[in-house]
Amino acid sequence: MATPQETVVRQCLALFHSTDMPDIAKISELFAEEATYQPLVPRAAAKRGRAAVVAELVRQFGRYKECHCEVLAMASSATHVFTERRDHVTMRDGRSLFSCVNAVFEMDAQNRIMSWREYWDSGDVAQLLGTTSEALHVRLSETHS
Predict the structure, then answer these.
(1) Is the residue at 51 inside a domain?
(2) In a domain, 127, yes or no
(3) Which band of pLDDT confidence, cut at 50, 70 and 90, is reported for residue 141?
(4) How many CA atoms lie within 13 A of 3 on its CB side?
(5) Which tens digits make up the pLDDT trace of 89-127?
(6) How far apart are CA 86 and CA 10, in angstroms?
(7) Residue 6: pLDDT band with limits 50, 70, 90
(8) Which residues constitute the domain of residue 32?
(9) Cβ(119)–Cβ(41) under 8 Å?
(10) How many domains does the chain have?
(11) CATH number of the domain residue 78 falls in
């Protein structure tokens, strides 16, 4: 049986299963006002505050036209949810790819997301995108600073 914290995380990830821009208002409601999001630990700087987190998620969705987060495993405590996923995306140019992702979500007392940290192999993603790890890291530091 899913915990309330797991239900919130599943709702958040499910909102990205769209071929159009996801429902940003619904996504925003799942985050605490002082939430943080770090899309690639440790390479990308954390976005701080609900508005900055949501803006980063919108920016990311602008790079692809379809996303499906396949949850392989999930574990939780009263304050944390850990996920193992495969994120499948279709890029705007039609290329399809997937990446293996581990993520940690920290929840507040109202079961809103306080922190979301993602861990994935940027070398693997760079290869799938036809670039180098170094070029991808430069791109991440330019767009996530």
Answers:
(1) yes
(2) no
(3) low
(4) 14
(5) 888 888 888 899 999 999 999 999 999 999 988 777 767
(6) 14
(7) very high
(8) 4-120
(9) yes
(10) 1
(11) 3.10.450.50
